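Students often ask why inverse folding is considered easier than folding. One informal answer: many sequences map to the same fold, so there is more than one right answer. In these notes we will look at a single instance of the problem. The structure comes first.
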């Protein structure tokens, strides 16, 4: 039996015991075991900051984008998909920021990505959590 305390979160139980939670920012499901918060990895944060084109007045916003990437063996991004947000359908500004993050990750200046080599990433698929405020903090 799955028990959860949900505040501003609507939870759904899925077959096999997985839980999918709907937050004000969208569905946060199990995107695999590999998740990286970009702000926690300085080299990756600096790399994304250098190739992500976001309007200057927006860089201080506390907005989070989740992008599921698949990499080739050399670290270049093969696929990138925005995950976990219903806002992409509802908010044109969020959609523009999320799509610009996806484009940055697929673009030549950001590749190959400097993913952590500490064993936290296994295989070639990972979900990056990118927070505007954290990436562009001085």
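Output (designed amino acids):
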């Amino acid at each position: 039996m799955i028990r959860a305390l949900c505040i501003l979160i609507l939870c759904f139980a899925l077959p096999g015991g997985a839980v999918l939670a709907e937050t004000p920012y969208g569905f946060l499901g199990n995107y695999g075991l590999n998740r990286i918060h970009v702000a926690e990895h300085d080299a990756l944060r600096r790399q994304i900051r250098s190739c992500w084109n976001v309007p200057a007045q927006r860089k201080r916003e506390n907005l989070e984008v989740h992008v599921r990437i698949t990499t080739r063996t050399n670290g270049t991004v093969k696929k990138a998909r925005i995950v976990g947000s219903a806002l992409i359908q509802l908010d044109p500004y969020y959609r523009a920021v999320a799509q610009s993050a996806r484009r940055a990750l697929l673009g030549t200046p950001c590749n190959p990505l400097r993913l952590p080599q500490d064993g936290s990433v296994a295989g070639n698929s990972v979900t990056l959590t990118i927070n505007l405020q954290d990436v562009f903090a001085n």
